[in-house]
Design goal:
alpha+beta; five-stranded mixed β-sheet; 33% helix; globular; four-stranded antiparallel β-sheet
Length: 440
């Protein structure tokens, strides 16, 4: 996953705009059109067409639920050159009808969080895509719950809006996999629009309450038009996939795409633009979550079990550091590095499986080499070597895996150091040979 995507929200962002962008960047429209069948939702139709937005060529995707696209009357495939008279709402359809936030009953035609996640499991996406989609759906419901001051289990989306949102979110999850996107950045400030938008609760300020919750901590700016430009689904997808908000990094651009909204204002290209390529040779920049808690009453023999369990559940790293706590008591500072999508689940695991009563979470920026494994031959069998890769795919160094060296050494009756030295020599020889071959 060495490709980088940079997003520029020229006209804002909504789920349908991102679907159009993925098609422009190389995802077959048929892959998105097949999502409804994978979800078991037979009454959804996904269509795509090439359009022009303020003279920019782009792709516009329409999601119809039971043959209808709900939204402002002048939305849809309009290509007129004047500003539409109806200024409330963005170019999204059912997906932008805000959630009902009253207790869910059997008479309600909507989907709650558990029902949305159950639909997700039907799609049989890859583990990475499923994890991303689960994160985006959960973020959307958490934002609606926080905005309206209700428990998350009392929030549900209109049935049609929920189906639209599922297509948007799963389409994005699928695209990140198919396009092999490993990191995402997004220009700021984000244009959030202004004015008021009409929804099920009456007139709401722009940005909508759920959007404002989702964009906490991100640089935003009002405008460039007096209407909604970032939808709740669009904001949830941004928070789930963007590793860094800021300027585009040093990168080699391979593909450029524009995903179009339904409106076509004369003075503003209503698109989200994506630059897809490879980062310049150097370390990758990634957003990670850091979890910390101090433990003063954990049994020493339980520490390795806790560390191994955290790593098995997706932590990028986990470690303990001796510290002196209050009243001079010795303790251990547990530090866990994780992807943002896994942070909450790991924090809850620590609270459930250690004496910790609380855990601190924060987001940090990390520079890192990518890594993979290759196998090299030694007189005692194959040994895996972990390679450090720069953002252009260049090999920086390699380190033989200790467990492989120890296993081979035990079977052969030699020292692990001897196996490690032979594996390192084999790796270095192959690296020099590959380098000469590339230069020839």
């Amino acid at each position: 996953m060495s490709r980088h995507l940079h997003l520029d929200l020229v006209g804002g962002v909504a789920g349908d705009m991102l679907l159009g962008l993925w098609i422009e960047l190389g995802v077959p429209a048929e892959s998105l059109q097949a999502l409804s069948a994978r979800l078991g939702l037979s009454e959804i139709e996904v269509t795509a067409e090439r359009v022009s937005r303020a003279s920019l060529a782009a792709t516009h995707v329409t999601v119809r639920v039971r043959g209808e696209v709900e939204g402002p009357a002048d939305d849809g495939h309009c290509n007129h050159e004047h500003e539409p008279p109806h200024e409330s709402g963005h170019e999204h359809s059912h997906r932008d009808v805000p959630a009902h936030v009253h207790p869910h009953t059997d008479d309600d035609h909507g989907r709650n969080l558990d029902q949305m996640l159950a639909r997700l499991e039907c799609a049989s996406l890859s583990p990475r895509a499923t994890s991303f989609a689960r994160r985006a759906i959960t973020l959307l419901f958490e934002a609606e719950a926080a905005a309206h001051g209700l428990p998350i289990d009392q929030v549900h989306l209109h049935e049609a809006g929920a189906d639209d949102a599922l297509i948007d979110i799963l389409g994005t999850a699928l695209a990140l996999d198919e396009l092999q996107i490993g990191s995402v950045s997004c220009s700021v400030p984000l244009p959030v629009g202004g004015g008021r938008v009409e929804c099920a609760h009456g007139l709401m300020p722009v940005p909508a309450p759920a959007v404002a919750e989702l964009l906490r901590g991100v640089d935003v700016i009002g405008g460039p038009v007096a209407r909604e430009t970032i939808t709740p689904t669009g904001a949830a997808l941004l928070r789930a996939m963007v590793d860094r908000f800021g300027p585009a990094p040093a990168m080699i651009i391979d593909h450029v795409g524009n995903g179009a909204g339904g409106r076509n204002p004369r003075h503003l290209p209503n698109v989200v633009r994506g630059l897809l390529g490879r980062a310049g040779a150097g370390p990758l920049q990634r957003k990670v979550s850091v979890l910390e808690t101090a433990l003063d009453d954990i049994l020493p023999q339980d520490v390795p079990v806790l560390i191994e369990s955290l790593l098995a559940r997706g932590a990028r790293d986990a470690m303990v550091t001796p510290v002196s706590m209050k009243k001079g008591r010795p303790g251990l500072l547990l530090t866990v590095i994780a992807d943002s999508t896994e942070a909450r689940a790991l924090a809850e695991f620590v609270l459930d499986h250690s004496p910790a009563l609380g855990i601190r979470l924060r987001e940090e920026t990390r520079l890192e080499w990518d890594r993979d494994f290759v196998s090299v031959a030694t007189p005692w069998g194959a040994v895996r070597v972990k390679r450090a890769l720069d953002s252009a795919g260049g090999v920086r160094r390699g380190q033989p895996e200790f467990d492989d060296c120890a296993k081979a050494a035990k079977q052969a009756g030699v020292s692990p150091d001897e196996v490690r030295r032979r594996a390192q020599q084999a790796f270095d020889d192959e690296l020099r040979h590959d380098g000469k071959r590339k230069d020839s």
